[in-house]
């Protein structure tokens, strides 16, 4: 009987130390609901790159990375919230890199087409 009381007290103490695993607290529901942002960001992988917002994805990246660090500094540490923020920052970083590669390739194509136009112009005059 005493051992059961001790184990129940230990479980209550563990919940008090880390409320991230108690569904009656915001520490539990904040990461659960934030996964919606991660899923929305992943669904944007299928959108055309020219429709993506650089500012929005930079904000997601910065927010994700800043809050990941914060979740690991606070007491008690909130590992579920840190995990979702890390994924959020990663999704934003992937999107920003997609946008950057798109713009780099677009600029390269414009340069190549202007060179090709100059070559064709030179062939016509000769």
Automatic annotation (TrEMBL):
Pfam families: MPC. Its main location: mitochondrion. The keyword Transport applies. GO terms for biological process: pyruvate import into mitochondria. Keywords: Membrane, Mitochondrion, Mitochondrion inner membrane, Pyruvate, Transmembrane, Transmembrane helix, Transport. It is found in: Mitochondrion inner membrane. GO terms for cellular component: mitochondrial inner membrane. It is a multi-pass membrane protein. PANTHER family: UPF0041 BRAIN PROTEIN 44-RELATED. Belongs to the mitochondrial pyruvate carrier (MPC) (TC 2.A.105) family. Mediates the uptake of pyruvate into mitochondria. This is Mitochondrial pyruvate carrier.
């Amino acid at each position: 009987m005493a051992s059961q009381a001790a184990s129940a007290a230990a479980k209550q103490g563990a919940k008090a130390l880390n409320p991230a695993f108690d569904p009656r607290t915001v520490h539990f529901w904040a990461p659960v609901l934030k996964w919606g942002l991660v899923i929305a960001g992943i669904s944007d992988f299928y959108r055309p790159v020219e429709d993506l917002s650089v500012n929005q994805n930079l904000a997601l990246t910065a927010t994700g990375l800043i809050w990941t660090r914060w979740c690991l500094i606070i007491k008690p540490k909130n590992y579920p919230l840190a995990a979702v923020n890390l994924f959020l920052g990663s999704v934003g970083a992937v999107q920003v890199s997609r946008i950057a590669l798109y713009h780099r390739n677009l600029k390269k194509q414009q340069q190549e087409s202007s060179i090709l136009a100059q070559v064709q112009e030179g062939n016509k005059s000769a």
